[in-house]
Design a protein that fits this description.
Structural class: little secondary structure
Strand content: 5-15%
Strand order of the largest sheet: 1-2
Order of helices and strands: EEH
Shape: elongated
Helix content: 10-25%
Number of strands: 2
Radius of gyration: 13 Å
Length: 51
């Protein structure tokens, strides 16, 4: 079995911590182009940053 490719096991994907709620978030395909800029786990956290 090839361990380097994604096979449905999220343990091989990179993770970050949300800047607002400190929840660990796992890489998503939709974030592939801007993974370095991702700071928040959800729209709710993004809106809470100002308060």
């Amino acid at each position: 079995m090839n361990k380097t490719s994604f096979t449905g096991n999220k343990s091989f994907l990179p993770t970050k911590v949300c800047a607002v709620c400190t929840k660990e978030m796992t890489w998503r395909k939709s974030w592939a182009k801007n993974w370095e800029a991702v700071k928040y786990c959800s729209d709710v956290c993004r809106h809470k940053k100002a308060t």
